[in-house]
Design brief:
The chain contains 20 helices and 23 strands. It is of the alpha/beta class and about 675 residues long. Strands 7-6-11-10-9-8 form a 6-stranded antiparallel beta sheet. It has a 5-stranded parallel beta sheet with strand order 2-1-3-4-5, sandwiched between helices. Helix 1 links the parallel strand 1 (about 10-15) and strand 2 (about 35-40). It is elongated and about 150 Å long. Bound molecules: adenosine-5'-diphosphate and magnesium ion.
Length: about 675
């Protein structure tokens, strides 16, 4: 007796047979062979129903069935789902029936009358085939899941280059659905052109099929999508070959380069930006350096002119010349101060400011910037309130806005700078919708240039945003925004194409005008007889400064460098009451000197004098007690006033601490007169 080969699993077999005797015989034999039997069923419809419900491993299907449908029709319906292997039972078949049966891709035929060996072989073969088919299907679904999840587009073709597969990425990039593309020439689905010339390129699938070898990665090409847009891609094609080396198709993988290009572009841009800001830094350093040297020269020019004017024996004509020199020198001083504002080397300190004063001081400079073809109007409210801000920062703000307006009005136009007070009562008033209600001082800078489109206007405060290609830094308005915000204010743009541009800066109105930081010791003597140690490496400046100090009555000890100054301090006599030192000097700089001198004379007032100040000085130096800073060039009056103030404050402190210690020691001062300063 025949037995099935693998007894571990019991396959279920559905019997579809309308002759009861044959059916009964089959049931009996199959059960004996060790199969589990479903049915028998004698008509097509029931066969379909049971097959779908029970999912038997095998269906034995009689070709001729009673009723409207025969076995082939039943099998065709069942085989819509490929999991149902059908074996036909047939006595004698004509060619036409056989052809119909073939279309349902049966797993075998068993001829009637049924012989046991034939039946078993057919069933075993069918089971084996099914298992293989299932493996194939599983691996196919694994592959298609993989292909669906990768970021590359994949297209496979047959050996003639017609599309047999596309993954979803390929569908998206080409714009073709696989269902539409299937069977079409690959060139129609995947059109590649040269990135630059836009000339059609040979399809890599075709090349791989012809060369029977992989066509390797290449980029600089565009995939022309169905919608006509060009997507930069790189691709890679390879032929599909059988074990025997027969080419049966090709597969092409391609990658969308857009995101990579965006990253590359961003990298490129940030390099450029870095370059720009380095350039700006370098210009700043250069400007600072020039200003420093220039300020030394101006100290001499202005100082000498001022000192010479003190000589009453000079005739009036000479004195006029000297006055002209002094005036020109002062204007030059204002210029270097602008230079310093740009290089951000000025002391950043908020002070009580009147914007009108700032604007009037800058008017000349603004005029030089806008030139003749721009009509400049200053409309300043005479009752303008004060604000608290840093003057050099505000100057920077105005400069940047003016320069932008100038650049926008390349054909000339009108530039209007306006100041006024305003009171905002409700949030929704005025363009300054988000300003907290209250009193404000407003500065507007309006031009009649081309204005800005909304997308530009929305981005102008972004650092590095510029529409001026390589000529712009994109830092101007970013700096402006930073300064205004830092000063507790708001800035708004009113601009549209063809409408010109107005920037409005709202700064909080300063209700109580506190005393200016520089105490005006008007009427107090600006002279003294104390001893001042003056340190300056520039001979001309040294001479001018010492003359100024001597004329004010002081005793001056001079040093040309830090080391020399320290030596003087180490001498027992005479006592030194104040150190006046340049900041930037070769060798020991002013700050280092300050520290060394403080180690010897702990409380001595130190006045730093420099062509510019940098942040280190701010941080480490003049924030200390009893130290202060003056910017070159200085006039004799300013210098004398500052020195006197520092000495007065110091001496007052000394007297107070002296009195305290006198009180504590019951009237007996422990402090000798000599070391009181
Ligand atoms: P930059 O001047 O270096 O481009 P800014 O930050 O100063 O950088 O300005 C950014 C951009 O804002 C400019 O490139 C320009 O497009 C626009 N912009 C600024 N001011 C004006 C203005 N007055 N009129 C028209 N556009 C302006
Ligand atoms: Mg600018």
């Amino acid at each position: 007796m025949q037995k099935r080969s693998n007894p571990a699993i019991i396959p279920r077999i559905l019997i579809v047979e309308d002759e009861p005797a044959v059916a009964a015989d089959l049931v009996e034999r199959l059960t004996r062979m060790g199969f589990s039997v479903l049915g028998p069923v004698d008509n097509a419809d029931e066969a379909v129903r049971i097959a779908r419900r029970e999912l038997p491993e095998i269906i034995l299907m009689d070709v001729r069935l009673k009723g409207a449908k025969d076995g082939i029709e039943a099998a065709a319906e069942i085989r819509l789902d490929p999991n149902h292997p059908v074996i036909y039972l047939t006595a004698h078949s004509d060619k036409a029936t056989l052809a119909r049966a073939m279309k349902t891709t049966p797993c075998g035929y068993v001829l009637k009358p049924i012989r046991e060996e034939g039946l078993l072989v057919a069933i075993e073969t069918a089971l084996h085939l099914c298992a293989q088919e299932k493996n194939l299907r599983d691996s196919e679904s694994r592959y298609s899941a993989t292909l669906a999840s990768i970021v590359d587009g994949v297209i496979a073709t047959d050996e003639s280059g017609r599309v047999t597969f596309m993954n979803p990425v390929a569908e998206e990039l080409t714009g073709w659905k696989f269902s539409e593309a299937q069977g079409r020439e690959v060139e129609q689905i995947l059109q590649l052109v040269d990135d630059v010339e836009r000339t059609p390129l040979k399809n890599p699938v075709r090349a791989a099929l012809q060369q029977r070898a992989p066509v390797l990665l290449s980029d600089a090409k565009l995939l022309m999508g169905r919608d006509g847009r060009g997507i930069p891609v790189e691709d890679n094609a390879a032929p599909i070959t059988t074990h025997a080396g027969v080419v049966i198709g090709a597969v092409l993988a391609f990658r969308d380069l857009r995101s990579r290009r965006v990253t590359e572009d961003a990298l490129h841009k940030s390099e450029e930006q870095l370059h720009q800001s380095q350039k700006l830094d370098a210009i700043g350093r250069l400007a600072g350096g020039v200003a420093h040297d220039f300020n030394n020269l101006l100290t001499i020019i202005n100082g000498c002119a001022d000192l010479a004017l003190d000589d009453t024996s000079l005739n009036e004509a000479t004195r006029d010349f000297l006055r002209d020199i002094a005036e020109a020198g002062q204007r030059a001083g204002a210029l270097t101060s602008q230079l310093l504002a740009f290089s951000r080397k000025q002391v950043m300190a908020p002070a009580v400011l009147n914007l009108n004063t700032v604007l009037k001081e800058m008017e000349g400079m603004v005029r030089r910037i806008v030139k003749e073809d721009v009509l400049l109007t200053l409309s300043l409210s005479p009752s303008l309130g004060c604000v608290k801000a840093d003057q050099s920062q505000i100057e920077q703000v105005i400069m940047n806005l003016v320069v932008n307006a100038r650049e926008a009005m390349y054909d000339g136009g009108r530039l209007t700078l306006r100041t006024f007070n305003t009171e905002l009562e409700r949030w929704d008033q005025t363009p300054a919708a988000q300003v907290t209600p209250g009193r404000y001082v407003v500065l507007t800078v309006a031009d009649t240039g081309p204005g800005m489109a909304a997308d530009v206007r929305d981005r102008v405060f972004e650092p590095f945003f510029t529409t001026k290609k390589s000529k712009g830094t994109g830092l101007g308005l970013a700096t402006v925004h930073g300064i205004v915000t830092q000063s507790g204010g708001k800035i708004y743009i009113d601009s549209a194409p063809g409408q010109g541009t107005t920037f409005s800066i709202y700064l909080p109105f300063l209700a109580k005008v506190v005393a200016l930081q520089e105490p005006q010791s008007e009427g107090r003597p600006r002279i003294g007889n104390e001893t001042i140690l003056l340190v300056e490496d520039n001979d001309g400046v040294l001479l001018v400064l010492s003359t100024m100090l001597r004329r004010a009555g002081y005793r001056v000890l001079q040093a040309r460098c830090g080391t020399e100054a320290v030596e003087i301090c180490e001498r027992p006599e005479p006592p030194i009451h104040l150190l006046l030192t340049d900041v930037v000097m070769p060798g020991m700089g002013g700050l280092e000197l300050g520290k060394s001198v403080r180690a010897l004379l702990p409380d001595i007032p130190i006045l730093y004098l420099s062509g510019y100040i940098d942040d280190t000085l701010l941080r480490d130096g003049i924030t200390e007690n009893n130290s202060s800073f003056l910017q070159k060039p200085v006039t004799p009056d300013v210098l004398a006033l500052k020195v006197r103030q520092m000495l007065d404050i110091y001496q007052q402190e000394q007297r107070e601490s002296h009195r305290e210690s006198y009180d504590r020691s019951d009237g007996q001062s422990r402090r000798g007169a000599g070391n009181s300063v």
